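Query structure, 188 tokens:
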């Protein structure tokens, strides 16, 4: 869990993979929901396993239990204006929203933004959205990114193989550094 008394958290949902312009191979749209502590950068990401194309799967019935599971009560939560977040105040969170259709940082209060979680999504896409990445392994790619972020000091000079299929570990295996092999291709 992240957050706690007065700890600032940013939450957001993001489409990870989708067909562009409804062309090309038919692939399942993959959505993620995540949160990030502003100060410590501790984070969580949860794949939304239901079809989310029309908004179902990203509704309050899906997102509220995830927030309760991963974010401690009395946290300060910053989010966009997605309607599923409207219940957060009644759940014991302090909640601020930024309207992305008007601005990305609230002009009246510059602390109200979701720039950090947006940066996390950008890092994730840069890391895993490439032609050679296989959709069935997206959960493992997300787990790998979270593992590397959590252990970045230890893995400062880490290398990974060019053949990215070798990177597919199960989530339990990612918990130990000893299973990671260091190769000659830079990670980032």
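Result returned for the query:
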């Amino acid at each position: 869990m992240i957050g706690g008394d007065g700890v600032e958290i940013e939450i957001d949902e993001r489409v990870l993979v989708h067909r562009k312009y409804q062309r090309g191979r038919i692939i399942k749209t993959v959505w993620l929901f995540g949160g990030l502590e502003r100060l410590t950068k501790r984070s969580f990401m949860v794949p939304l396993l239901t079809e989310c194309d029309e908004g179902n799967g990203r509704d309050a019935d899906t997102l509220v239990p995830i927030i309760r599971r991963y974010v401690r009560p009395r946290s300060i939560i910053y989010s966009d204006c997605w309607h599923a977040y409207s219940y957060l105040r009644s759940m014991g969170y302090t909640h601020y929203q930024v309207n992305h259709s008007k601005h990305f940082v609230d002009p009246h209060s510059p602390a109200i933004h979701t720039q950090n979680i947006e940066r996390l999504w950008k890092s994730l896409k840069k890391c895993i959205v490439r032609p050679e990445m296989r959709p069935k392994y997206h959960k493992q790619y997300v787990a790998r990114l979270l593992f590397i972020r959590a252990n970045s000091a230890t893995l400062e000079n880490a290398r990974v193989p060019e053949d990215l299929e070798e990177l597919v570990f199960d989530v339990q295996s990612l918990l130990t550094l000893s299973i990671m092999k260091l190769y000659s291709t830079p990670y980032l």
